[in-house]
Amino acid sequence: MAELNDPSEIPTVKVMHPAREMLGMFFQNYNAVFGLILLVVILLFTFVGPYLHTVDPFEMVWAPFTRPGEEGYLFGTDYLGRDILSAMMAGGQISMAIGLAAAVISLVIGVTVGAFAGYYGGWIEEALMRFTEFFQVLPTLLFSMVIVALFGASLLTVTFAIGVVSWTAVARVTRSEFLRIREMEYVAAARSGSATDRYLIFRVILPNALPPIIVQANLMVGSAILFEAALSFLGLSDPNVMSWGQIIGSNREYILDAGYAVAIPGIAIFLTVLAISLIGDGLNDALNPKLRQR
Amino acid sequence: MTHPLLSIEDIIVDFETRAGKARVLDDVSLEVNSGEILGIVGESGCGKSMTALSIMGLVPDPPGKVTSGSIKLDGRELVGLDHESLRQIRGKDIGMIFQEPMTSLNPVFTVGEQIAESIRLHEKASTKAAMARAVEMLRSVEIPEPEMRAKAYPHQLSGGMRQRVMIAIALACRPRVLIADEPTTALDATVQAQIFDLLQDLQSEMGTAIILITHDMGAIAELADTVAVMYAGCVVEKGKVETVLSAPEHPYTKGLITCVPHLLPDPPKVRESLQEISGVVPALTDLGKGCAFAPRCSEKIDRCEAAKPELRTSIDAHLTACWVAEKETGV
Known about the structure:
The complex is a heterodimer of chains A (294) and B (331). Chain A has 294 residues and is mainly α. Chain A contains 12 helices and no strands. Chain A is elongated and about 75 Å long. The model of chain A is unreliable at 1-10 (pLDDT under 50). Chain B has a domain at 248-261 and 290-331. Chain B is globular and about 65 Å long. Chains A and B meet through helix 9 and helix 10 of A and helix 2, helix 6 and helix 7 of B.
């Protein structure tokens, strides 16, 4: 036995953290890298841009409907003569903040519901999944419109409304992962080592269930941005807060005269959601062990 | 007389299935003392693992249920204990090693973290102190370069290494009873021997009582002090290893012993074929009133199908549940 266990005979393993292995996979995917670069550019534009271009997005700076490029206004002015470039920067911040916050809300609700349903099973699962299905069959846009109409069109309610209508997918993914993982031997082993339910849920099962949840969460940021745009377009957002959807919504009556005022934020939304989707795709490939080439 | 460290008395476990009620453990009684190794042998599905789970209080409920009986650890009743008390006993007083070292470790944490966590579940120890203990545990299960291996993820270790880690986790809190459920089934023969050596060393060092569940008669012969042979949820024969293996009384035990292939120094010209026990373990939902082994038994007599034999002592605390053996020994 001693000679078999001689340390010199056992090749030293190079210990590599799985996260680093995963990042390596991610960066081999050109689409994902493109998405990441695109997102970084958009983030720089919206968060660093305002320091370079200090024009109040709500201030009337020039004649209305100045075409893009004319009179030194890169994106032109809107129907009130406001600088669209400033509006795009300020609006991007809000759009992304709403997207992120709504995704976090739906992640928290979805993971909690899914985890408890998948872990406990029985009537708890039955009740939680019926509850999930109830939210799933509600027409999401209508439901969020009702919430916004009831509680007023503030930033908070819009974010909350988007989060509340979009958590069902996360709950279902989480539940199915929990159902699969709770039957694993290492869960039984942890249980035999006196783990509490809370420990099993959050320290044993959840970390193993994360990959599909991360992908889902990432895609949700994109869909939340779209959702916010849809609500703003319908006039259901805080008029005092600039967002991309808000720019589209406020200019939609002049779409024939000033199409650019609608097209520019539209393209920005499209590019952002595209970037996020590409990143999500890359994450999915990197996190899915079946696709990993060994 | 002092009571045994762990005693199981007349435990009955039932499972509700679609096909009806299945009695997966029927009146099982076992005991093990400190520093002893109890071997439980039998085919798949005869209740070995279920015995282990009922000791741990982990019988899946539903569909399973401990219908009656008692399990005492050092005189303390475990059956009917609330979840929290049972949880505290698991890992601390009774540890368990699983069959599949490949899948019994959490893939997203390093093995050091996993050992440290199991220590911290029972004792108030700082993360750092627990990690130091984890490295010590890895050293005690003879893993080379324990400081390095503690930072490795399960998939970076071999099967034997992983089983050593499992043993380290199970022993981290120095349990008084260690249940090893087929600890070497998934491993190579050479690694099996290493693991058995290790278990024996640790046992003599720590004085742990070990319940070794296996279908390998060779392992039993080498390691165990006492042995219990299980068939269809019942203990059919139990006693000291020497007596049971040298003079088996139950036809099933005899069958199990003859099933083991022998390694002879010079193979005979005419090879005798390996003995097998024909048939399979019967479905637990339709056991007749007779002996469960009767349909497969070569020594069957009329009485076997009429009534179920009970465990009876023959000599020297050697118990057998068989009508034929009873007739022969004349007890």
